[in-house]
Amino acid sequence: MTKKRFIAGAICPQCQAQDRLVVEESDGAPIRRCVSCGFTDHQPAATSVTLPTRFVRRGLANSEAKPIKLIDD
User: Fold this and answer.
1) With left for phi above 0 and alpha for psi between -120 and 50, is residue 63 left, alpha or beta?
2) Where are the domains of the chain?
3) Contact 6/19 with Cβ under 8 angstroms?
4) What are the backbone angles phi and psi of residue 24, rounded to the nearest 5°?
5) Alpha-carbon distance 46 to 44, whole Å?
6) Helix (H) or strand (E) holding 54
7) What is the pLDDT of residues 32-48, one digit of tens each?
8) What is the pTM of this model?
């Protein structure tokens, strides 16, 4: 069974219909499909991106980050 998700506000590149695109997972690969005109497009595989955080900018490892405990009086 394929998992389907509608994309809110998306516009089909072929028929220009709004709110008609759905993303389906088929064999682990996401496929974008328009329910109005039948347009299909294979999405590229997601790449891993490291977002800049304060630990990455300072050159600190995540293991050096320690949680704090808040005490409520």
Assistant:
1) alpha
2) 1-44
3) yes
4) -115, 140
5) 6
6) helix 54-58
7) 999 999 999 887 666 66
8) 0.53
Nearest to 22 by CA among 11, 14, 33: 33
pLDDT, one tens digit per residue, over 6-18 is 988 999 999 999 9
The answer to whether domain 1-44 has CATH 3.40.50.300 is no
Torsion of Cα atoms, 45 then 62 then 55 then 70, to 10°: 120
Residue 46 one-letter amino acid: A
Q: Would the pLDDT of 58 be above 70?
A: no
Considering only CA atoms, which of 69, 5, 1 is closest in space to residue 33? 5
The amino acid sitting at 17 is A
Q: How many angstroms from the chain centroid is the CA of residue 5? A: 12
